[in-house]
């Protein structure tokens, strides 16, 4: 990204977005700035002891823990020297003076240094220095160490603070805690219930056993004393740790809960969720805590809000807690937005996780049940983004790596519902990530981020992550990655290097390396598949391949995650056999009881539409979908059909009980059921398109779709008109009243709505629409006038002009502008740089119609014009090759078919004067008269025969206007209409063999059918052109 004055501009592929991402300092800039602040805050000292004490005071009293100043401070820990006099003074329990400087060697001062050093942690360079300090500061000599010098009150406070540290305690500090236990056990009765509970908890976190203090805590709880707020929190925490459920039912505790103050209730909430089975008593405490919070929301402080968020997170996965958590979060929302600037990174993440989870749950519930107001939900979602998400992302650079990973994981695209962040908002997330971690090398980012301090700081940040957390962080950055190929990103490179080191345990020889086990969550596996581009030649690639290659590894995966993994694999460059294995495992487990919804099957089919991974995928999926069609809602039915249409079943069965044979009828029943209510026009077109691509034409399905199309206003649905006509062509449906409505509206749009002259994109739409109407043999003078007007459109390319000429020629419409356009096309064809040099075979076939239709249907002057050398070279010679190749191909297919054998046998037995049509004619004709050109037999395949025909006069007519005329008579469709018309123009008496009827007959009936067809001269049925002339 390029950080501008007040906006960040990003480029992704061919799309450009300008996103309102305020300028913000990067992670490196903040680290370097914090280091300068620490350096300025430390006054000049002569001894390492003074520097250590000064640093400890600043760390504990000035800087917020987990803040940047705290995290860079360990690089200022001085190197201890055994010869330093002041170093001895620190160990001694007294105050000493050296060169006029006072060194505080009291136990309290040493304890403060130990606490600061334990919290600072350190990296590879500073950690050994810190360990040296801790060893001497503690002084674990039995009876003389620091644990025996501090006052019991100070010792208790010190141990509780150590128990709250995230870093692992040094051995010397652990020994100090063990020595402290002996002293504290003797005075346990002097502590309050809250202090005793916190002390026992801290010792447990320090992995130090203290039976004596635990017994005192048990005894304290059994007294059933009336507790203050702190005692209530301690009691509930005690129940959670030791599973003493009976205390929650005691009257003294419930009375204390009624008096609980809002702030104490917020601090209580994280302790209310049990580690074991949930009971009614836990629910009661939870409800009382919520009630206490809601009645005094305005009293909450930042740390109370963060504690509340942690408590909500523990209850959100429980059915009982979801509704209550939603009520609580809604009540706390105004207070959260007020205290948001004062929250630390951990607290920000907890709040984001709680609110984002609730928002996603509400969205899933809304989509599944349909209950609730979607408008209110969208408004709440946008408010959540504006007031919580974007402010948190603007502080991404000041967070710890762990918190950055959690933030990006929280807002990662979900699996169970649609992503609430659109494309532009996802790019905005990428903008915030790029601002926190700019692309390029580290030296280009900030020249101050060099030397041992930076290596130590970065190592400490990364080592603070567990391997799953590191994977989550890499995946989060990968999802926000906007790099161009070959561009460097120092952050990703360093993280991948550390991840490689963790996963790969080398034993002297790389060939003996082994993969260390890593526990992955379901979402983590999905995100790793989404970020597959990051793992090339990385050890994660080995881990994933190993995992996905074993069927048992994916069996526990819930179906939504299984489908998402498969979908992502189909998008990525992975070995085909791996994707086939995962898909096969899904099908096998579905056959053995795994529940896969119709929506999920649709996702599988759509994902694998361009992936030749399974021979019978659609057929096997159909077996699971057919029982569900009768109950599917409209949106699921539409998506299921689109999924099937993405991979149409290869086999075609017209009978039996197989899935392919039953599916069209099942789908027709489903469409009839959902069509009882009005359906939006785009959905109608999607259903029609899916049926046409599947080839599942049934009267029962077509009638309700066409009926609703006729009842829909087209004003706002112009983009779907082309899709509707394509579906009509694919299904061989000629519904003239509907086509009339489409053309009338489109012509009105061209006249009053579209710019003049039409731009190239709009012009291509006109060409495509006219071409589709030609295939349907529907002619409109109004549309032909629009085509004629655009022959000289300055925005039209030569190819578009040529395609408009083919439309006019196929419709036998030759205006004066036709000849001038032909000249322009011929002139353009002489240039190798024009688009006419790259015509496809199909376009060349269509272009030959200009010559062919002019010869048969055009005026004599036009025929003479097109026979001039320049015109002839292009329209006859250049375009004819592909046309005649197509005719030869049809002739070859006919000669190799059973129809040819049956026809010739019938001709011979009946003694008819018929023989095979001549090779090289403009049209392939199956049979012609041997002695004269009187008769021509044309075989019409099913694909050349309409399945539905309603004439234009049916609109508004009495009776049944939707009656399909194809039920009484067969009608020609497509290019066969033109073929028969031109044969009749040559003087042939055309006899039609409808193969849909012929193939059902026996030999005797076929002989009679051929004899009657040749003997009776009639005009084959086709949509009559006269019906469609209108103004």
Provide the spatial order of strands within the biggest beta sheet: 9-10-11-13
Distance between the termini: 57 Å
What value does the average pLDDT take?
A: 83
Low-confidence stretches: 1-19, 82-102, 506-513, 1025-1031
Global outline: elongated
User: Which class of secondary structure composition applies to the elements?
Assistant: mainly alpha
Rounded Rg: 40 Å
Q: Estimate the strand proportion.
A: 5-15%
How many DSSP helices?
48
Helix fraction, binned, reads: 55-70%
Q: How many strands, which pairing sense, and closed or not: the largest β-sheet? A: 4 strands, mixed
Oligomeric state of shown chains: single chain
- Count of strand segments: 13
Q: What can you see in these coordinates?
A:
Among the domains are: 273-394, no CATH class; 401-439 and 452-539, no CATH class; 797-882; 897-1015, Endonuclease, Chain A, CATH 3.40.960. The chain has 48 helices and 13 strands. Mean pLDDT is 83; it is low at 1-19, 82-102, 506-513 and 1025-1031.
Give me a quick take on this structure:
With 1031 residues, this protein is mostly helical. Helix 9 runs parallel beside helix 11 (229-242), helix 17 runs parallel beside helix 19 (401-410) and helix 28 runs antiparallel to helix 29. The radius of gyration is 40 Å and the shape is elongated.
Features:
disordered C terminus; RAP domain-containing protein; 3-stranded antiparallel sheet; 60% helix; 48 helices; 1031 residues; single chain; mainly alpha
């Amino acid at each position: 990204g390029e950080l501008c004055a007040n906006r960040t501009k990003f480029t992704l592929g061919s799309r450009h977005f300008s996103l309102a991402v305020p300028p913000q300092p990067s992670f490196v800039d903040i680290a370097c700035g914090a280091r300068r602040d620490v350096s300025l805050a430390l006054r000049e000292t002569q001894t390492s002891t003074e520097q250590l004490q000064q640093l400890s005071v600043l760390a504990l009293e000035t800087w917020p823990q987990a803040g940047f100043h705290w995290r860079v401070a360990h690089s200022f820990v001085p190197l201890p020297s055994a010869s330093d006099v002041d170093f001895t003074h620190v160990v001694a329990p007294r105050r000493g003076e050296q060169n006029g400087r006072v060194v505080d060697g009291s136990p309290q001062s040493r304890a403060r240094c130990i606490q600061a050093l334990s919290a600072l942690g350190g990296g590879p360079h500073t950690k050994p220095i810190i360990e040296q300090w801790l060893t001497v500061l503690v002084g674990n000599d039995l009876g003389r160490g620091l644990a025996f010098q501090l006052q019991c009150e100070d010792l208790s406070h010190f141990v509780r603070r150590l128990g709250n540290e995230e870093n692992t305690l040094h051995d010397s500090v652990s020994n100090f805690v063990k020595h402290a236990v002996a002293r504290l056990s003797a005075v346990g009765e002097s502590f309050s219930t809250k202090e005793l509970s916190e002390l026992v908890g801290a010792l447990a976190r320090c992995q130090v056993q203290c039976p004596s203090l635990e017994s005192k805590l048990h005894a304290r709880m059994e007294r059933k004393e009336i507790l203050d707020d702190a005692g209530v929190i301690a009691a509930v925490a005690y129940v959670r740790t030791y599973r003493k459920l009976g205390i929650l039912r005691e009257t003294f505790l419930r009375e204390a809960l009624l008096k609980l103050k809002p702030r104490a209730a917020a601090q209580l909430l994280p302790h209310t969720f049990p580690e074991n089975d949930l009971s009614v008593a836990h629910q009661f405490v939870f409800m009382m805590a919520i009630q206490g919070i809601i009645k005094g929301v305005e009293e909450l402080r930042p740390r109370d809000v963060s504690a509340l968020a942690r408590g909500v997170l523990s209850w959100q996965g429980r059915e009982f807690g979801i509704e209550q958590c939603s009520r609580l979060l809604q009540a706390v929302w105004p207070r959260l937005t007020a205290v948001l600037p004062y929250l630390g990174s951990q607290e920000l993440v907890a709040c984001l996780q709680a609110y984002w989870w609730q928002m996603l749950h509400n969205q899933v519930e809304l989509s599944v049940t349909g209950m609730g107001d979607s408008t209110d939900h969208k408004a709440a979602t946008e408010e959540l983004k504006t007031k919580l998400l974007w402010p948190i992302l603007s502080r991404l650079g000041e967070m710890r790596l762990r918190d950055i990973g959690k933030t990006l994981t929280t807002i990662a695209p979900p699996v169970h519902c649609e992503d609430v962040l659109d494309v532009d908002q996802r790019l905005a997330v990428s903008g915030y990530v790029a601002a926190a971690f700019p692309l390029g090398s580290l030296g280009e980012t900030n020249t101050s981020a060099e030397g041992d301090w930076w290596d130590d700081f970065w190592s400490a940040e990364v080592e603070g992550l567990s391997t799953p957390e590191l994977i989550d962080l890499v995946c989060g950055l990968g999802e926000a990655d906007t790099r161009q190929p070959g561009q460097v990103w120092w952050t990703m490179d360093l993280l991948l290097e550390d991840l490689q080191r963790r996963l790969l345990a080398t034993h002297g020889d790389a060939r003996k390396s082994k993969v260390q086990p890593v526990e992955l969550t379901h979402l983590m596996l999905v995100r790793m598949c989404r970020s597959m581009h990051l793992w090339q030649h990385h050890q994660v690639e080995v881990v994933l391949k190993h995992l996905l290659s074993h069927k048992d590894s994916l069996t526990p995966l819930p179906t939504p995650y299984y489908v998402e993994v498969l979908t992502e694999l189909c998008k990525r460059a992975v070995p085909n056999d791996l994707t086939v294995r995962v898909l096969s495992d899904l099908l096998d487990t579905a056959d053995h009881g795994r529940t896969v919804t119709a929506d999920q099957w649709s996702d599988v089919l759509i994902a694998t539409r361009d992936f030749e991974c399974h021979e019978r995928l659609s057929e096997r999926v159909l077996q699971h979908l057919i029982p569900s069609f009768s109950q599917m809602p409209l949106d699921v039915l539409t998506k299921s059909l689109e999924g099937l249409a993405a991979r149409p079943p290869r086999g075609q069965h017209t009978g039996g009980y197989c899935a392919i044979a039953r599916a069209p009828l099942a789908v027709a029943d489903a469409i009839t059921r959902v069509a009882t209510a009005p359906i939006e026009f785009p959905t109608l077109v999607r259903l029609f398109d899916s049926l046409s691509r599947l080839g599942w034409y049934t009267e029962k399905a077509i009638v309700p779709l066409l009926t609703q199309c006729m009842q829909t206003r087209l004003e706002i649905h112009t983009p779907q008109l082309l899709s509707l006509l394509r579906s009509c062509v694919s299904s061989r449906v000629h519904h003239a009243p509907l086509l009339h409505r489409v053309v009338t509206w489109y012509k009105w749009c061209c006249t009053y709505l579209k710019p003049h002259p039409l731009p190239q994109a709009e012009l291509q739409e006109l060409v495509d629409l006219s071409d589709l109407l030609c295939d349907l043999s529907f002619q409109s003078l109004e549309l032909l006038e629009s085509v004629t007007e655009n022959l000289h459109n300055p925005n039209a390319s030569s190819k578009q002009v040529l395609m408009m000429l083919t439309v006019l020629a196929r419709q036998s419409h030759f205006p004066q502008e036709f000849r001038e356009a032909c000249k322009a096309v011929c002139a353009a064809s002489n240039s190798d740089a024009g688009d006419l040099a790259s015509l496809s075979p199909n376009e060349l076939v269509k272009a030959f119609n200009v010559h062919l239709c002019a010869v048969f249907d055009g005026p004599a002057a036009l025929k003479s014009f097109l026979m001039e050398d320049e015109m002839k070279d292009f329209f006859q010679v250049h375009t004819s090759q592909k046309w005649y190749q197509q005719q030869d191909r049809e002739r070859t297919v006919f000669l190799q078919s059973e129809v040819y054998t049956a026809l010739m046998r019938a001709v011979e037995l009946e003694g008819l004067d018929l023989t095979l049509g001549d090779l090289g004619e403009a049209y392939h004709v199956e049979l012609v008269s041997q002695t004269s050109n009187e008769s021509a037999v044309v075989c019409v395949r099913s694909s050349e025969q309409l399945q539905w025909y309603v004439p234009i006069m049916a609109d508004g007519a009495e009776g049944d206007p939707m009656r399909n005329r194809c039920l009484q008579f067969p009608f020609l469709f497509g290019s066969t209409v033109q073929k028969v018309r031109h044969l009749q123009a040559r003087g042939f008496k055309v006899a039609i063999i409808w193969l849909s009827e012929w193939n059902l007959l026996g030999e005797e009936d076929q002989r009679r059918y051929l004899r009657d067809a040749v003997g009776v001269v009639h005009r084959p049925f086709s949509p009559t052109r006269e019906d469609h002339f209108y103004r």
